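stage 2 :: seqdesign
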């Protein structure tokens, strides 16, 4: 419910390209990846998060949240053989509207 409310609140701020996207042309494999990220990977995360907030407290748990980017970089370097660099923070080009 919270995700739907957040989506509705943010929709007016999305770039026009999102609204003009031909969603029927998105490959089925991409929809399957999205479903995997939403249901088995993301679904259990919310109850676990709220359980952790209840047992550890929000202040203590937030300290662990700041470790997520560092752990992600280390795991990507270890398992995916990615090499982190100073430009890793850069916003991808596809996030911005195309200039005419």
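stage 2 :: out
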């Amino acid at each position: 419910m919270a995700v739907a409310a957040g989506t509705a609140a943010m929709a007016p701020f999305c770039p026009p390209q999102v609204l003009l996207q031909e969603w029927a042309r998105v490959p089925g494999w991409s929809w399957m990846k999205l479903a995997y990220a939403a249901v088995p990977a993301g679904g259990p995360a919310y109850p676990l998060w709220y359980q952790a907030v209840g047992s550890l407290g929000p202040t203590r748990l937030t300290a662990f949240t700041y470790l997520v980017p560092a752990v992600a970089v280390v795991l990507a370097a270890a398992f995916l053989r990615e090499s982190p660099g100073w430009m890793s923070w850069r916003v991808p080009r596809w996030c911005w509207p195309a200039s005419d």
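stage 3 :: structure notes
- Residues 28-41 form the longest helix (14 residues).
- The chain has one domain: 2-87.
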